[in-house]
Amino acid sequence: MTSLITTVFVFTYIGMALGRLPGLRVDRTGIAMIAAVVLVAAGAVPAGEIAGAIHFPTLLLMGGLMILSARVGAAGFYDAAAAWIARQAGRPLRLLALTIAVGGVLSALLINDIVVFAMTPLLCAGLAARKLDPRPFLFGLAAASNAGSVATLIGNPQNILIGQAGRLGFWTYLAHAIVPAIVGLAITFGCIALVWRSSLAAKAEEALDVAPAFDRRQTGICATALLVLLVLFTTALPREMSALLVAAFLIVSRTVPSRQLLDDIDLPLLILFASLFIVNDAFARTGLAEQGLRALASHGLLPDRVSSLAPIALLLSNTIGNVPAVVMILTVWKNIPEGVLVGLAILSTLAGNLVLVGSLANLIVAERAAIAGVRLSFRDHAKAGVPITLLSMIFAGLWLWAGGFMPL
């Protein structure tokens, strides 16, 4: 049984690195689900213990936040934000700065994947109408969504998981992570402005602005709900229950069908998480992970230092992906020190900017842009992505060391 579990585990993460099964249209979620089903069917995880293997508080928190973000989108806020940004096209550097700032701030407050999913198409349309090269701005949106989401424990899926698993305080983490996030956004602007300076020097053409539908009242309701959620995070109420209460309140509407909000829940992402929980639980039951960690600890090789965690985060985030990497690390390494958890959240997220496949947000921007007729290549992304990632991770590593979170 141990051989079977180990084989499935290894092939699952090879699949995470490849992104899909060669020759088949099976993506990361499909691979993880197949692996989980095989392991349960083989008895590696008894059917009666599946619920214990899955960390439901994380899934419930993500689901609640997705409903909040869906209600924000239904109010037309994302479309209005993207349209407002595109209207600044007469000054490309200002347009880039606004894209990065708005994308970063929204990604800190809402799940970054949903933010870029909603904003990319309209941003593409606005830039195309003004005959501007959309690539630097789309890369800026993707990189900003990663850097900005560093700031909070609700900014991206891996931070949600780390916050739930480590029981990190929402506001305490924000105080620790806000500076690396802001610096990461500044580095993003500087690198893209330098690398894409010829495209950003182009003159924009005049275009007829089409104002998207925007409901101020509904946006106000969403803003109030977000404030309530942040206040609830200061109480003893579990974060997942806080998010579900706010989501339940937002579902009650005269204008937005509840089915529309529920349809916007990213079910494949939740299935990916649940499946990886099962795969990693099965591997943990073999005892191999514990033995490996003891061996690493005996040789002083645990990634509890900046100099070891940063390259591991960089490697795993850009091979198997930062979400699968974090699920794996949290499953095989128990009782991770709080400072290391903070470092893992910050570094694994910033590492996602290195290459196009480094984060789900990058891929969403590329896929949504392709539908709009804009091709974002691996090479084009790496031109700015590599310096953005290295500079922001170096700063974040020094910040973690100077703040006493992790030794250098």
The count of β-strands is 0
Major sheet characteristics = none
Distance between the termini: 40 Å
Q: What structural class do the secondary elements suggest?
A: mainly alpha
Shape: globular
The fraction of residues assigned to DSSP E strands is: under 5%
> What integer is the average pLDDT?
83
Radius of gyration over all CA atoms, rounded: 21 Å
Fraction of residues in helices? over 70%
Features:
single chain; 408 residues; mainly alpha; 20 helices; 73% helix; globular
Can you lay out the helices and strands and say which pair or pack?
Blueprint: H1 2-18, H2 28-41, H3 50-53, H4 56-74, H5 77-86, H6 92-109, H7 112-129, H8 135-149, H9 157-166, H10 170-195, H11 197-200, H12 216-232, H13 239-251, H14 258-263, H15 267-285, H16 288-298, H17 306-332, H18 338-350, H19 360-371, H20 378-402
Helix pairs in contact: 1-2, 1-15, 1-17, 2-15, 4-9, 4-12, 4-13, 5-6, 5-7, 6-7, 6-8, 6-10, 7-8, 7-19, 8-10, 8-19, 9-17, 9-18, 10-20, 12-13, 15-17, 17-18, 18-20
Give a verbal description of the structure.
This protein is mainly α and 408 residues long. It has one domain (2-402). Helix content is 73%, strand content 0%. The chain is globular and about 60 Å long. The mean pLDDT is 83.
Q: Summed up, what is this model?
A:
The chain is mainly α. The protein contains 20 helices and no strands. It has one domain (2-402).
